[in-house]
Design goal:
Elements: E1 2-6, H1 10-24, E2 27-31, H2 34-42, E3 48-52, E4 59-60, E5 63-64, H3 67-76, E6 85-89, H4 94-104, E7 108-111, H5 117-128
Parallel strand pairs: 1-2, 1-3, 3-6, 6-7
Antiparallel strand pairs: 4-5
Length: 130
């Protein structure tokens, strides 16, 4: 499975990617660049996106964007709307979960740092097999 990991913290991203590759046998591409995100998703090389909410300095069409903005954009385009998106955030208050999911139009939500990778892998498998 091809996973696009959108994360601005490269050290965290590399650790997460290594675990997803080892434990799940997945291929993981890392980026926080909105242009590359769109290019990869439109190129049909992505089975699922793990999207960090906080992406300081990420610019799309002249505007600073968050992971929630990019998720909403991907879900609004017919070419990419089918790609499951899991929002990753360290700001995981229960009351904010539904607001964030509605705002981003993401399929699911996961708190970070991820401590249970098997749970994340199960969630990925569920969403891709829908």
């Amino acid at each position: 499975m091809n996973i696009l990991l959108v994360e601005d913290d490269l050290l965290l991203a590399k650790g997460t990617a290594k675990l997803l590759e080892r434990l799940g046998g997945h291929q993981v591409e890392i980026t926080a660049d909105p242009e590359k995100i769109m290019q990869l998703c439109q190129g049909e090389k992505v089975d699922i996106v793990l999207m960090d909410v906080n992406l300081p300095g990420a610019i799309w069409e002249g505007e600073e964007v968050s992971g929630a903005d990019l998720s909403r954009l991907l879900k609004s385009q017919p070419q990419t709307a089918h790609i499951p998106i899991i929002i990753l955030t360290a700001y995981a208050m229960a009351t904010e979960r539904e607001i964030l999911l509605n705002n981003s139009r993401a399929d699911e939500f996961c708190t970070k740092p991820v401590t249970d990778y098997q749970l994340l892998l199960n969630l990925i498998d569920q969403l891709v097999k829908k």
